[in-house]
Amino acid sequence: MTKRSDGRGPSELRAIRITRRYTSSCPGSVLVEMGRTRVICTALIEPGVPNWLERTGRGWLTSEYGMLPASTSQRKARDRGGKVDGRTIEIQRILGRSLRAMVDLSRIGERTIWVDCDVIEADGGTRTAAITGGCVAVVDALEAMRREGLLRAGVEPLRDLVAAVSVGIVGGTQVVDLCYEEDSRADVDLNLAMTGRGKFIEVQGTAEGAPVSRDSFVQLIDAGAVALQKLFEAQRSALTDAKLPV
């Protein structure tokens, strides 16, 4: 496999675009596009925390994820009546874990950062795009807190940037950033979430076909780490006016 279904090389990401301030109603609002996958990520900070964090002085970050009915070629029914399918719950958990790693929650007071990620078009990698875009939305929400005087002077809650990418083996070739056509027939599929300083938060994956060797597994992680640096560059390029960690 020399060229992929969309013409990319094995280590080539899809075209990425990060549009900040996508809506005017939320301090953190981002449209992230990875090829044909498009996700709206918003971050809103509200007073109060879950009961188990009350009177601790700590904040919280939680995430919700959903796919709009027309985000796929066949209509996806909306979640109704509080019923959420298992895939959605799994993705919400990886989003929350990944984005909590970027914030020192002891420094925002007893407030909750709500991150909502809504897929408007899905062509594979929706969870990884949501993490990458959700990170930028959280940075903007924290910037809004700073402007409004809600952070103590000299207190910086932003620890690091966070991004995510998929890697896999398709037709015997290791590839990064799988589109849906590749994901649907991959022998191995991993999702990696990492901090800007190169520390992994999540390695989530499976061998759908034959089991994968240790060497191949390590090679996949290494390929993902290289690809993630390009996503961090895209985030920093989008956040030129924000206060970011060195």
User: Major sheet: size, sense and barrel closure?
Assistant: 5 strands, mixed
* Oligomer description: single chain
Range of strand content: 25-35%
Order of helices and strands: EEEEHEHEEHEEH
Q: Give the neighbour order of strands across the main sheet.
A: 1-2-3-5-4
Ends apart, CA distance between termini: 39 Å
Mean pLDDT: 93
CATH superfamily: GHMP Kinase, N-terminal domain
Number of helices: 4
- Overall, the morphology is globular
Radius of gyration: 18 Å
What is the CATH architecture descriptor? 2-Layer Sandwich
General description of the model:
This protein is of the alpha+beta class. The protein has one domain (16-238): Ribosomal Protein S5, domain 2 (2-Layer Sandwich), CATH 3.30.230.70. Helix content is 27%, strand content 29%. It has 4 helices and 9 strands. It has a 5-stranded mixed β-sheet with strand order 1-2-3-5-4. A 4-stranded antiparallel β-sheet has the order 7-6-8-9, sandwiched between helices. Helix 2 (126-147) packs parallel to helix 4. The longest helix is centred in the C-terminal third of the chain and has 25 residues, at 214-238. The protein is globular, with a radius of gyration of 18 Å. The termini are far apart.
